Amino acid sequence: MSFSTFTTPTGFLLPSVHSAPPFFTQQPYPGTNATVTEQWITLILAYARHRKLFVLRVEDAEITDNDWQEVVRNERINRKLLPSYLSSIIATMVSKNLATYDPPGQTRSALLYWRLPEEWAEVLHGWAISTGQLNTILTFYEIADPPIPSPLSNIPINLLRKAIAVLAKTGRSQLIAVADGEGVRLFQGK
Amino acid sequence: MTLRRCSRSVDGTIPIQALLYNDEELLSSQEGVGIYDGAQKSPNHQSGTIHVTTHRLFYLSAHRASSYSLAVDLSCISQTDYYAGLFKSSAKVTLHISVAVTSPGDSGPNDGPDTPFESWECGVCAYRNPPGLSPAAARICGLCGIPRDSFPAAASPHQLSTSLPTSTSLPSLLPPSAPSSSSGTLRRQPNAIACPACTFLNHPSLRECEICTTELPQAASLGMKSAPSSRPASPDPSDDEEAAAARLIKISFRKGGDKAFYAVLRRSLKSKAWAIGASTTAPGDTSGAGSGITGILRTVESSAQERASGMNDAFQDLEALMVKAKDMVRLAADLNERLTASSASSAAEPEAATFIRSSLSQLGLQMADAPVTQDMASDEQRWMAQLARELASVLKGLMRERGVIALDEVWGGWNRARGVALLPPSTLLQVVPHLPQYTDPTIVTRTFPSGLRVLHTPPYAPAAFAARLAQLLAEQPKTITEIASKEKVAVGLAAELVGELEGEGGVCRDDEACMIRGGGAEVRFWGNVFKGYVWDGQEKERDEVVY
Lengths: 190, 547
Prior knowledge:
The complex is a heterodimer of chains A (190) and B (547). Chain A is elongated. In chain A, strand 4 (73-74) and strand 5 (79-80) form a beta hairpin. In chain A, helix 4 (117-130) packs across helix 6 (157-169). Chain A is 37% helix and 17% strand. Chain A folds into 2 domains: 6-112, Arc Repressor Mutant, subunit A (Orthogonal Bundle); 117-186, Winged helix-like DNA-binding domain superfamily/Winged helix DNA-binding domain (Arc Repressor Mutant, subunit A, Orthogonal Bundle). The model of chain A has no long low-confidence stretch (mean pLDDT 86). In chain A, the strands form 4 sheets. Chain A has a 3-stranded antiparallel β-sheet, covered by helices on one side. A 3-stranded antiparallel β-sheet of chain A has the order 8-10-9. Chain A has a two-stranded antiparallel sheet with strand order 1-2. Chain A has 190 residues and is α+β, with helices and mostly antiparallel strands. Chain B is of the alpha+beta class and 547 residues long. Among the domains of chain B are: 2-107 and 242-281, PH-domain like (Roll); 177-229, no CATH class; 374-527, Winged helix-like DNA-binding domain superfamily/Winged helix DNA-binding domain (Arc Repressor Mutant, subunit A, Orthogonal Bundle), CATH 1.10.10. Helix content of chain B is 39%, strand content 16%. Chain B has 19 helices and 20 strands. Chain B has helices at 2-6, 16-19, 65-68, 99-102, 135-138, 169-173, 180-188, 218-226, 236-242, 258-271, 273-281, 293-345, 351-362, 380-398, 407-418, 425-431, 462-475, 480-487, 491-503; strands at 7-9, 26-37, 40-41, 48-53, 56-61, 70-73, 77-83, 91-97, 118-121, 128-129, 158-159, 193-194, 201-202, 248-253, 404-406, 444-447, 453-456, 478-479, 507-511, 523-527. In chain B, strand 7 (77-83) and strand 8 form a beta hairpin. In chain B, helix 12 crosses helix 13. Mean pLDDT of chain B is 73; it is low at 101-116, 153-187, 219-241 and 277-289. At the A-B interface, strand 2, helix 1, strand 5 and helix 4 of A face strand 19 and strand 20 of B. Chain B: Component of the ESCRT-II complex (endosomal sorting complex required for transport II), which is required for multivesicular body (MVB) formation and sorting of endosomal cargo proteins into MVBs.
């Protein structure tokens, strides 16, 4: 039995395993389940990177019409991901540090690390250098919603804060309180 | 007339044994007899069976047994004659009926048909006397021996249901034209006088009704009193005219057996069991015991002793039977062996041999080889080996069409095949490891993750089954039920087999609960489509960061 890949309307190439009905069932045996969940994590992160999606909720498997439709449902084989299984996938991602519950203290919604905070830190630093904004004070909004689209566009503030914290460890950033909230000053560093 | 007066109708469809009193005994029977009422043949009683008991003479009619059968109390027979028969006239026994007994009284045959079949409580010792004793025996308390009449009998006679044999007699005796209301009333309370206005039953000494003061019909009631409506007047005057000859009944023996029967009848009449019945046959032998507390205690004691000894006898019989049973089994095995040997030489089995075999199997004694019991084998190891061999032959039948069988079924099947000397499950567990040496193809045991233990043939070894299932599922994913029918195993067993394979990653499942439209509770099994899967989706994009 062979399955084929499929390109979605948003231009994402779904893997062939996404056309296999058993892929959508939570396998009761740990060995098989680990393999399948691994594939789901790869798929979710690849899709999140493709669509620049930062947040995955358990509700995404419950309601239609959301950003994750192309992944959590497969109309061609009449299968969908059950919320219970999605919840368990998210839990696995959190345990592997590929996501974090956001806001913390609940398990229904998670922030996806298709780039780790360390990687985001490098992206932020590189962006500041390339746009000549070192040593100036930047508000979070200026970073997350720049006039010219950047890799950092739409980055959640919580993730941004983590990236800044990483930079601060190497002395390349400094959090500053400004009039309407918080700001950051980035340095060249060593 | 005589016949009707001295006899009591019984339901002849009931077997004779069920008609007897508890203390009555059947002595002899003779079929093919007819009855003469006086000098004439009694038209309704010309073909039947006569039974003589310690208390009564029964005539059970061959046709219309329910209405033409009757019983005569031996107590009302005063004399008997025997006539040997001549030419075409068959042998006859003549019974002279004594008048005294037929007069109304509590022992009269037509009177109080309920008396033998009611239980009553003794007014002295409060012992509840059981129903079913003969009238004489029933008049005396079975425990303390006090006669029932010595205290007001009205205590509380517990009537049994009216469906008992003798109580069915009345309707057939009653003339259909009899005024049913008055006769019914009189039967229940012979002395009471029914008020013509309000029907209240007044005491016989009253002249006016107790309720409505209507004058009571004295004369009429007195006439009724001495002669219940079911009987044609009082016997005396008319009987005198009829002469003594009329007061006899003849039994005509048309099929012989007369001499033997007459002898028995004489003996029974002589022994007068009906008169002494009360003292000799009442529960417990009270003859030696005086009355009073000591008597009661002795009665109770002796009846307990009787029961204990009876029980002992029964157990001894059982033990003897068990000893004999062993011989029986050996004999059966021997017979079977010989039959097999003889049938091997000649092609067709003789009819007798087939009959013996079928009767042996009906007795549960048919065995190709007798079950192995521990005393047949010299030591534990050989016993195990023999058991394993026996089990192997049983399994050959049990697993003819199946590759997997649960241990419980094996145990049940094995013991059923053995029939005797059943084995406990623990022995089965001990024998199972020896099985591979005695089976071909080898049958081995296997324990599923759930703890279920089965025996299986090589095709159901895990690797072989996995390969076969993979092939099966490659064609099309299947539910457990479909797998079970394909593999010809029970659904539960199939679930265990697949479950074990699933645990090893051999198969994966597709739950219909995950369907977007429709969806049920079925689970389909697939070959493991994830094994060796390499990501073939969107390439992981290079870090496309644009500075």
